[in-house]
Each structure stands twice: as C-alpha cells, then as structure tokens.
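Lab meeting tomorrow. Please check the following:
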Amino acid sequence: MALAPAPALHLNAAHPPLERWCPRGADPVTRLRSWSDILAATHLAFEVKPTLRTPGRFQAVVTRRPIGDLMLVDCAASPFLGHRDNDVIAARADFAHENVLGFQFVCKGVELVREGDRQLALRPGDVVLWDGLQPTEIEIAEAFYKRTLLFPRDRVLAVCPRLAGLEALPSMEGSASARLLVRFMNALAVEMPSLDGAAGAAAANAALELLRAAVEPALPSDRAATRAAMRAEIARYARSHLQDPQLGPASIARAYAMSVRTLHALFEDVDASVAGLVRTERLARCLEDLQQPNGGSVTEIAFRWGFCDAAHFSRVFKREFGATPSEIRHAALAAA
C-alpha cells in the first residue's frame, strides 16, 4: 500500500503544505507496488518492475506542491523499470489527472525513455517535455533525481494552439527559454512556501509564458493554427492593458494594425467575442482584488480594472459570479 502524503507543518494556512510520499513495505515486491501507487497519485500510472540494478531495499521519495493550477514535483528513486501502454492509460479513471504536459529537468542520474518513436537517454542537465497521454517506457539506469512542472494540457494549448497538431513534442535542447524556465522552477521551489494564492497564480502564468516561448519556435504554421495563435496573442495584449478604460475592439484593432471587422472575424471561430474576452479578464482581476483584504473599496477596484460605471460593474459581476462585489468584499474582510 502506498504511503499517503504526510501533512507538513506550516505557519500560514493559506499556503498549501508540502506533500511527501515514500514507498512502504518490508520486501522489494511490496515496496515497488507501493511506488507504482505513488507514481499514479503524483505523476502518471505505471506498471513498475525491478531491473538487475534495483537494490534489495528500494528507496524513493516524491514531494510536490501546487503553484496556481500547476504542480511542482520533485522525484528521486533507485533504479527500476516503468511501463505504461494504452491499457494502463485507459484503466485510469481520473482522466484529468493525466491530461497533462510535463516539463522535466534531470538533476542527477540517468533515465532511459521511450515515448512513441522517440528514444532518449536523459542525464544531469537535460530538459524534456513529455505527454501524459502518450504510452511510455522508462528505465532508471542510475539512481536519479528530477524536478518536473506539470501543466494542464488545456492551459498549454490555450497559449500554444499549434502544439495540438504535432505528432511528437518538440525538443527543448538548446532553448534559452527552457533554461530560464528551469531556473524559474528552482526559484519556485525555494519561494513557494511564502507565496499566497494570487502570487501562486501569477507564478503559474509566468511559467506558462516561458514554456510557450520555449515551444513556439519549433511549431509548424497553418491558417487555423495561425489564427488561434493570433487570438492567444490578442488575449495576452488585453490582459496587459485591462486598466485602460478605452480598451476594446477599436483600440485592440489599432494596436495590431487591422480593421475592427477583421478583428471580429478572427474570433468568429470561437464562442467568446473580443469585448467578452476583455470583460471576462477584467472581472477575474476584480474578483482577485475583492478577495484581498488590502484590495481597496469596490469602486476603487472597479475603476482600477477599467470599469467606468460602478452600477454597470455590479450588474455584470453578479451575472458572472452569482454574488455582488460588495458581498465578496464583505466576506473577504470578515475572514481577514
């Protein structure tokens, strides 16, 4: 049986505790079965077997902590063999848990990986992007330690839509953005105990942008993918200009040297309009500030994020979240 994550002591309940797993069992078979359960809970489901290098006292540990909607996972283990085919993947009831892309940095040891037609020998300093829904075989040839940032697939495809059309994930070799993301992961491991919810969400967004910068140069281009990439770029522009009360289809079209009609046509393939995108992003920022004790008054928050009419803001906010801004604000202050 796998060891359940042990709760860690921490000073601020707003900061999720570090979770830690170690295999249990007196004999190698039980410990490897326990390790298989741990991998399924923290990474992906694998059938785990010993190799000639597996020690009689198999040792392993996993620690993890959420960063916004991402998960930062450290993993160390003695040599073993892990296998996941389509049957193993299909048997997993929690599809969302494995519908992820992993950005992995090898700190120590040697890991041999076979993923589809791709075969890799990962050594200290190597970086790889892997697909949680891809049949995979791994062999830990030397006791290893790796750090992985798990991204929900839909989050990655929202900023890298062309990635969905690839049969194999691009190589991270030689990417300065990938190296920068490794440094960012290492900084997160140090700073995450003191990150609150808003800071964690901001860190997750920063990590996502670094991953996009690492992946984009290797992606092919076609019309549909180009349109999706342009929509993602416009969404990033809108998020960075939300405080401008003039932000809207006209100002966005001017920024990209296109007509308003062309801008609207760019969004005809998706459910959200340009104006709806701006409104949704503004409301999300307002909600974040309303939940912060030092966020300011309801009117100040509305004006901060580009709403010029407090009454209109209150109506659209309640329609979006089912509660008025004042109710959210009062609840946050009462909790504080």
Notes: The chain is about 45% helix and 20% strand. Confidence is low (pLDDT under 50) at residues 1-14. The two ends are 40 Å apart (CA to CA).
